[in-house]
Amino acid sequence: MTNPENTTIDLAGLGITALNEMQQQANEAIQQNSEVVLLAPTGSGKTLAFLLPVASILKPESDHVQCMVIVPTRELALQIEQVWKKMSTGFKVTCCYGGHDMQTEIRSLVEAPALIVGTPGRILDHIRRNSFTGRHISTLILDEFDKSLELGFQEEMSEIVRNLRNVKKKVLVSATTTKIPSFTSIKAPVTVDFVTNKNKSEGLTVVQVLAEKDKMTTLVRLLSYLGAESTLIFCNQRDSVERISAVLKEEGIDCAFFHGKLEQEERERTLIRFRNGSVLFLAATDLAARGLDIPDMKHVIHFELPMKGDEFTHRNGRTARMLAEGTAYILMDREDKLPDYIIGKPKVLDLPAKLAAPPVSDWVTIYISGGKKSKLNKMDIVGFLLQKGKLEKQDLGLIEVKDNISFAAVKRGRAEAMLQLISAEKMKGKKYKIEIAR
């Protein structure tokens, strides 16, 4: 695909063959208008929808920061950074978020990337430190801006906007209809709305599961019913998330957990294991409802229903993504009343009394103590594991290379033998710690 300014985007590298209707409309609207509000469901491809016009707007001859994307969470920031890199625009991006090494970010910002993506607190910190010059930033995008407000970032975002005095194009992005905050000074935006009525996902099926007094027993039976397919289990509280994971493990079901109080490295490892299929079930708070790069999600389970309809929408957006099909299960008693935000009558599922426990994943995740800064890339790891570990290509799954560490999915039945074979081997002349990630 070729955009104006001769910027060519390789859609195949992004895993798609063509833009969907929302992406086409958003691309056109953002290029042609100075104020745009993009409303589209979670999982519909919003990130690409606003990055495509950015790639067209950026000026190759400029050696200044030209565009900023502000997001509520580090996970969303990292996802946007990865999409941008896959687009192969030739323009540099820097990702800034709390928990990341400040000096690493400052060194990257000194080189003036064309695009900065980050969370409000960290970006404001850099502005106050004068880590970069903002006077050439002409495009500002607030992605999931409603979530940023919900998390209490209004003051930070307001100060950021006040400091960016030469912004000519403002884009607000959300999966739900939300009032435009006054600090944006947006007066008459063009709205691209794929949230209301007919534009909602047609691939989603909502099912009510008749629960026993002990909902955990019902959850175990439901996971057994679903089998070996990736499933997100949503709860309202962190304690519930950890309790579900612990109880399921006691039942012999491997279930990871994910919430905002985990350290960044723990969150990243958990998502990697879930993304590559090493762990099939993930119990999570609403932090996982938005902005996480988790492809091929089959099922979402509402162990506890959220208080607000918006969060119900966001949770369900983790499945039936990009026009695929998926199912959202609600665990409720037969007599319980559905909240008003659930439109229509869900299908009812009465689980069989006897079910075999879900099988263990075919994959395990291998941890490697080196990454990009050690000059390792995916091909290095593939070659090493195939040649020294005696694996076949079909024994290797998803490989992710980070700055200082890497992870590779390996068939469970081959992992231990492979680890023994490579225990004394070097990769690119260096010995790395390689073990099964926990």
What kind of assembly state do the chains in view correspond to? Answer: single chain
Uncertain runs with pLDDT below 50, 5 residues or more?
A: 1-6
Number of strands: 20
Mean pLDDT: 89
Write out the CATH superfamily name of the largest domain.
P-loop containing nucleotide triphosphate hydrolases
What do you see in this structure?
- By secondary structure, the protein is of the alpha/beta class.
- The protein folds into three domains: 2-198, Rossmann fold; 201-349, P-loop containing nucleotide triphosphate hydrolases (Rossmann fold); 363-436, Alpha-Beta Plaits.
- The protein is built from 13 helices and 20 strands.
- The chain has helices at residues 21-32, 46-57, 74-87, 102-110, 120-129, 145-150, 154-163, 215-226, 238-250, 264-275, 309-316, 378-387, 412-422, and strands at residues 2-3, 7-8, 35-39, 67-70, 93-96, 115-118, 139-143, 169-174, 190-193, 204-210, 231-234, 255-258, 281-284, 299-302, 326-332, 347-349, 363-368, 396-401, 406-411, 434-436.
- Helix 5 (120-129) crosses helix 7.
- The radius of gyration is 23 Å and the shape is globular.
Question: Can I get a quick summary?
Answer:
The chain has 438 residues and is an alpha/beta fold. It has three domains: 2-198, Rossmann fold (3-Layer(aba) Sandwich), CATH 3.40.50; 201-349, P-loop containing nucleotide triphosphate hydrolases (Rossmann fold, 3-Layer(aba) Sandwich), CATH 3.40.50.300; 363-436, 2-Layer Sandwich (Alpha-Beta Plaits).
